[in-house]
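Reviewers of the previous submission asked for a worked example of the structure-prediction workflow described in the proposal, so we include one complete record here. The input consisted solely of the amino acid sequence. No template or homolog information was supplied to the procedure at any stage.
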Amino acid sequence: MSLGEVRDIAIVVLAGISLVTTLVLFVTAFMLWRLFRVISDEVRPIIRSTADTAATIKAATTVTADSHAAEVARGVASVGVVGKLFSLFRRGN
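From that input alone, the workflow returned the following C-alpha cells.
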C-alpha cells in the first residue's frame, strides 16, 4: 500500500465522517425547531389563561374594594350621627 493509496482512503473516510456529522447537525436543528414550535404552541394558551385570570382577579378586587368602601362610608356616617345625638343630649342637660 503506497502513501497515495493511504491518502485516498483517509480522504474518503473523512468525507464520510463529514457527511454523517452534517446529517446529524441537520437532524438536530430540525428537532430543535420542532421543540421550539411545540413549546410555543403550549405556552400561548397558558399565557392567555393567566391574563384572563389576572383580569378576573382585578375585577373581583375592584368590586370588593368598592363594596367595602361603601360600607366604611356608611359606618363613618353612622358614627357621626351618633356623636351628634350625644352632643345634643349633653347640651340639653
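Residues 3-92 form the longest helix (90 residues). We consider this example representative of the routine output the project will generate in years two and three.
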